[in-house]
Amino acid sequence: MNRRFTTTGALVAVAVLGLTACADAEPAGSTDAGSAESAAPDAAAAEVDGPLDLASVCPETVVLQQDWQPEAEHGAMYSLVGDDYTVDTGAKTVTGSLIAQGVDTGVQVEVRPGGPNVNFQPVPSLMYLDDSILLGAVTTDAAIVAAADQPTVAVVSQLTKSPQILMWDPESHGGASTIAEAAAGGDPVVSSGDIFPRLLESEGLIEESQIDLSYEGTPQRFVSDPSILQQGFATAEPYVYENEIDAWGKPVGYQLLADVGYSVYPEPLVVRADKLEEHRDCLTKLVPIMQQAQIDYLDDPAATNALIVDLVDQYQTGWTYSEGVAEYSAQTIKDLGIVSDDPASGVFGQLDPDRMKEIVDTFGPILVDAGSIPDADVDPESLYSNEFIDPSISLG
């Protein structure tokens, strides 16, 4: 099982459980082209020109680019894939009828994973290389990095706050329940990149001497040296370490980085800035569909989780993802408020202008210090648009 982590605005791949060898054999049911088909969808056609009819305004295939391997955090995207889906095990993509709210929208949807499947290229780079990608998942600090040469505009937030965490062994840290308590003894803060450690340092939660950028993604160091604090995701590592790593097999302590200033929007869906006008009519209908898709997925994640687990198995990239992790992730997303209505407006998926300004003000200087951008002169308003949001959609 691999995990991603945002660092200096780019995606860095790390392995949490150790990579398994990629299989050469095609999965059961595959054709010679390396694809597997499912049954046709049982969905009524959208009302012509109605809000769910995308046929006249969107591309024949709506291509959605994720920033990492299939996982429950991406459930909204995968929930749109109809039962007639085809899996391309070579390209590592899934394509099927775009089914929204039980209705066939008249177009296809193709979901592409990121990470090793795209040689770890950042999503903005992929979008500027491939015009067919309509929407990509780009965390706000990555959007800041790309703003000068590959600008994107976030049109809907699907995770309201980051699921990224710092985790530790409670027994080795006096039963600590917060990062401040766990880090107070000066133990190493181990990560694969320096953005969030620099943030913690600027917040006075850790000293510069504690920053350790040697994280390789395996659990060995944490298991053998439980004095360290280590990066992770609330939606995976607490479950994995307790239930799937035999050498550990007990709870970990953790706190969301979002609780201590890591205010970035995680993986909002963006369009290329120079393509916004071209796709305006499509976005007007598609963005509300994406808003509702996240809500519907969390209300009933089982079928989509089964698809995600199946895709991971068929892609055979070394990434492992169990049904248990998927179920835990979907529940944790709800329990921790990782998905919630925008606090400022009460609308799900809307981006808060004040928060966007705060993100640029906070992370711009950090990214400059990291050498990711030459200066922090980025207009927050250029990074997002709420014009396509349906204000009637909320979790409430």
TrEMBL record:
Residues 26-45 are annotated as: Disordered. Gene3D superfamilies: Periplasmic binding protein-like II. It comes from the Bacteria. Residues 33-45 have a biased composition (Low complexity). The keyword Signal applies. Keywords: Signal. Residues 1-25 form the signal peptide. This is Nitrate ABC transporter substrate-binding protein. It comes from Paraoerskovia sediminicola. The lineage of its organism: Bacteria, Bacillati, Actinomycetota, Actinomycetes, Micrococcales.
